[in-house]
Design goal:
Length: 292
């Protein structure tokens, strides 16, 4: 699904949806509290660094998890990422092999992460952590595990996209929040805000309480070895939570966008759709560009 407009702070004032869905949000919160009470936590012998967020999708947590793993590797550690494996058919624990596994088997995010280092998918997170430890890891990076209470964390990193922030401030489905802001911040050790300098400044000015925790500013930028798109005519498409972020990145590198197609988050593209985009790009002598 795409991020509904009424989930955004400036849009909900013009919509009745948040108010109509609010009773379901109360049920969501109650079920979340019950789940915490019924969950027992596993204490891993290895350090566990959790990377997560308070809202649904598009915060930059996966690039953050990859960066943390890369930094740990540079320091001489043997870090493994453990992920749930969103939309994966395999329940795990399974060490993802990018040369053999398909996105249908392990999920698109896990496949991307595995191309850069050891990545496990496991619906049972504690089983995934144990499998990683038995395979030589000496530190675990838990991807999207902030709301998972089956594992005790040594460090919890909260990632926030500054352009969308906490959305309209409501819980799912009235808004994008997975839990109340106050309860989430109590468990966070470090906050990383990701976005452009203007959106970072605006977001932090609206939420001064964030200063109570160590705060790091981050930004997603194209790799130095990426294709030079300055002045090039392109047709772009993406199946991510906030496709406009990708469009902004393309504009910042100087690409001339003649068409931009947004698909649902984690969209499994059909051959017919891709062939249509390829054909259009050839006709207009444009480069076809998408996200990793």
């Amino acid at each position: 699904m795409l991020f509904p407009n009424f989930w955004l702070e400036t849009k909900h004032k013009q919509s009745l949806y948040p108010y109509l869905l609010y009773p379901i949000s109360i049920c969501w919160m109650a079920l979340g509290k019950l789940k915490i009470q019924l969950t027992s936590s596993y204490q891993s012998p290895l350090p566990v660094i959790c990377v997560g967020n308070l809202t649904v999708g598009g915060n930059g947590k996966t690039p953050t998890a990859l960066k943390i793993r890369s930094l740990l590797g540079d320091l001489g550690y043997k870090p493994h990422i453990v992920s749930r494996g969103y939309k994966a058919r395999i329940k795990g624990p399974h060490l993802v092999d990018p040369t053999r596994d398909s996105f249908r088997e392990v999920g698109d995010e896990a496949l991307m992460m595995a191309s850069q280092g050891p990545t496990w998918i496991s619906q049972n997170r504690s089983a995934g952590v144990k499998a990683a430890a038995n395979s030589g890891a000496n530190v675990i990076v838990l991807d999207d595990g902030f709301q998972n209470f089956s594992i005790k964390k040594n460090l919890s990193v909260l990632v926030i996209e500054s352009s969308t922030g906490f959305g309209n401030g409501y819980l799912i489905p009235a808004g994008p929040l997975r839990e109340k802001i106050s309860t989430g911040l109590k468990r966070a050790d470090i906050i990383i805000t990701i976005g452009s300098p203007p959106t970072q400044k605006t977001f932090k000015s609206k939420h001064l309480f964030l200063k109570k925790l160590p705060l790091i500013e981050g930004r997603l930028v194209p790799k130095k070895n990426s294709l030079n798109l300055k002045g090039k005519t392109i047709i772009a498409f993406a199946g991510i939570a906030h496709p406009e972020k990708f469009r902004t990145t393309l504009e910042e590198v100087g690409a001339i966008i003649i068409k931009f197609k947004a698909f649902a988050n984690h969209k499994a593209f059909e051959i017919q759709q891709l062939n249509k985009l390829l054909s259009e790009a050839r006709k207009k002598e444009a480069i076809l560009v998408t996200t990793e």
